[in-house]
């Protein structure tokens, strides 16, 4: 029985297109692939940092960490940058820096305290 060409076409590997005067290998190594955004849920942040839910909730209420996005279901999402901020906050806290000082260093305000006017 012969296979239809349309059925096998999608399964064939596609070689990268070579730019003029370059080999296919040079074209694929010339530019790094764009990094995909990585999002973390609060449980992922807790697992990555060892913080308790209470501590993480406190940092959220105090405006020290800020959610990057929210899912349709309402879950908070955080990106790599916010994870780095959280790790820096943990280091500062271990060095004895107070929450207000950390908030000032980050230039953030507590949740619920916006600019009035």
Characteristic terms for this protein:
single chain, 117 residues, Multidrug-efflux Transporter Regulator, Chain: A, Domain 2, 2 strands, disordered N terminus
CATH first level of the domain at 42-106? Mainly Alpha
Number of strands: 2
Second-tier CATH architecture of the domain at 42-106: Orthogonal Bundle
Strand order in the sheet with the most strands: 1-2
Instruction: Report the biggest beta sheet as strand number plus sense, adding barrel if it closes.
Output: 2 strands, antiparallel
Distance between the termini: 76 Å
The number of helical segments is 6
**Chain-averaged pLDDT:** 78
Shape: globular
Work out the radius of gyration.
23 Å
Q: List SSEs in N-to-C order.
A: HHHHEEHH
Identify low-pLDDT runs: 1-22
Determine the CATH topology of the domain at 42-106: Multidrug-efflux Transporter Regulator, Chain: A, Domain 2
Helix content: 40-55%
What fraction of residues sit in β-strands?
A: under 5%
By secondary-structure content and strand pairing, the structural class works out as: mainly alpha
Task: Note down, in words, how this protein is organized.
By secondary structure, the chain is mainly α. It has a domain at 42-106: Multidrug-efflux Transporter Regulator, Chain: A, Domain 2 (Orthogonal Bundle). It is 44% helix and 3% strand. The protein is built from 6 helices and 2 strands. Strands 1-2 form a two-stranded antiparallel ribbon. Mean pLDDT is 78; it is low at 1-22.
What is shown here, in short?
With 117 residues, the protein is mainly alpha-helical. It is built from six helices and two strands; from the N terminus they run ααααββαα.
């Amino acid at each position: 029985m012969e296979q239809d060409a349309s059925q096998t076409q999608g399964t064939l590997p596609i070689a990268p297109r070579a730019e003029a005067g370059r080999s296919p290998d040079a074209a694929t190594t010339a530019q790094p692939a764009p990094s995909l955004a990585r999002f973390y849920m609060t449980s992922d942040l807790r697992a990555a940092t060892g913080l308790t839910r209470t501590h993480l909730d406190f940092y959220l209420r105090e405006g020290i960490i800020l959610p990057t996005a929210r899912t349709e279901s309402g879950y908070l999402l955080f990106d790599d940058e916010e994870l780095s901020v959280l790790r820096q906050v943990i280091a500062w806290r271990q060095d004895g820096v107070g929450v207000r000082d950390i908030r000032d260093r980050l230039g953030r305000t507590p949740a619920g305290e916006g600019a009035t006017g």
